[in-house]
Design the sequence.
């Protein structure tokens, strides 16, 4: 505890001395700079007196340097502010482009989902249609009525050799088949 209070007192004293040195430095800078009034070559120490005109010119030169320095600092501040503004504008543009890309990606995903839903609905409708066709084909049962006997017509076809041969009409045409591959029996009048 004692050590901490001693350290604190030491740091406070050092801080005060540094502040005093800083104020002395500021006051020294406020005075006329020694380089503004030039000493002659034969100066060997001692008091030097300058005319009021030389002092006035030295002050004007010093004030001009100060104005130039402040102007350069102002220009630097404006440049920094403009750079920060450009940086902010660029960040906003990047953010806007990022949001636009995200929106476009979401839009594409919605379009894909919509197309997939449409495709699935179309496939489901196609399956229902096929199922309805199958059910309608299964539902057709042969009637239990007596069938009339099929009378086969024999057609006699003559050839150039003079021999007449009976032609079988069913052998000439293949029998029609359904989608599932079963043979379809045509009515007698179409055979």
Sequence:
């Amino acid at each position: 505890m004692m050590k901490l209070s001693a350290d604190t007192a030491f740091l406070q004293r050092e801080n005060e001395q540094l502040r005093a040195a800083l104020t002395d430095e500021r006051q020294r800078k406020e005075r006329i700079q020694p380089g503004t009034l030039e000493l002659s070559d034969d100066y060997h120490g001692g008091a030097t007196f300058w005319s009021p005109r030389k002092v006035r010119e030295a002050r004007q030169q010093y004030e001009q340097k100060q104005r130039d320095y402040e102007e350069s600092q102002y220009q630097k501040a404006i440049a920094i502010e403009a750079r920060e503004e450009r940086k902010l504008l660029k960040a906003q543009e990047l953010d806007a482009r990022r949001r636009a890309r995200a929106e476009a990606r979401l839009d594409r995903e919605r379009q894909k989902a919509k197309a997939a839903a449409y495709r699935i609905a179309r496939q489901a409708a196609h399956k229902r249609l096929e199922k309805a066709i199958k059910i309608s084909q299964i539902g057709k049962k042969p009637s239990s009525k007596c069938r009339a006997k099929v009378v086969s017509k024999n057609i006699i076809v003559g050839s150039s050799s003079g021999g007449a041969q009976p032609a079988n009409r069913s052998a000439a045409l293949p029998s029609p088949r359904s989608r599932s591959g079963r043979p379809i029996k045509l009515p007698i009048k179409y055979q």
Notes: Helices lie at 2-30, 52-139, 169-172. The chain has a mean pLDDT of 81.
